[in-house]
Specification:
The protein is of the alpha+beta class and 191 residues long. The chain has a 5-stranded antiparallel β-sheet. Among the domains are: 63 residues; 68 residues, no CATH class. The protein is elongated and about 100 Å long.
Length: 191
């Protein structure tokens, strides 16, 4: 036991203070990184659960019906080489009250007039977005987790870079002071 303590004291005695600070910062940031992973998992799980619940509520308050497109879904070309996947087109459907309705729905670019598609209606019979499904909930949960991981990773990486930069400056200043003290002696012996 005493021999091990002597060896540890010799190792500590030969190390610079900046090395100890760097080790401490590395341990602290690694611990924060582990905490970040757990927080990202919990955040993603909570966002997923919330999206699943929202989908359940939306399915209970919305109804699916068939709509007939009244016009072709022609893509409006924006930037060169880009075509939107969905475009707004006029459509007709029967509302939940049995009355015919018309309005604008999102249809796949290139869909022809007269085609039928499923639309979701709210309680007032207006076309609304479809309820969140399982795949959408996974994307929402994964997106929340990734956003936290990327943001937290950038903060931790920035902290590590700042610590390394400050320690590099401190070591450089120390090396300059030491060289100013011993450099003249070494320079005279070479000449």
């Amino acid at each position: 036991m005493a021999r091990r303590r002597q060896r540890a004291d010799r190792v500590r005695a030969g190390r610079r203070f900046t090395d100890l600070v760097e080790d401490g910062a590395a341990w602290l940031l690694a611990s924060a990184g582990a905490f970040l992973l757990v927080a990202a998992f919990l955040t993603g799980s909570a966002a997923y659960g919330s999206a699943v619940e929202r989908g359940r509520v939306e399915r209970a308050t919305r109804t699916a019906t068939e709509a007939v497109l009244l016009e072709d879904a022609q893509a409006v070309i924006g930037e060169p080489g880009t075509v939107p996947a969905l475009v707004s087109v006029a459509a007709r459907w029967i509302g939940s009250d049995g009355a015919p309705r018309t309005g604008r729905v999102m249809a796949g670019a290139g869909t022809r007039a007269g085609s039928t598609m499923t639309v979701w209606l709210d309680r007032d019979g207006r076309a609304v977005a479809p309820p969140v499904d399982e795949a959408g909930a996974v994307v929402i949960g994964g997106g929340a987790a990734m956003a936290l991981l990327v943001g937290g990773g950038m903060v931790l990486g920035g902290c590590w870079a700042a610590v390394r930069g400050l320690l590099w400056r401190a070591n450089s200043a120390r090396w300059q002071r030491e060289w100013a003290r011993v450099g003249p002696e070494w320079s005279r012996s070479v000449l």
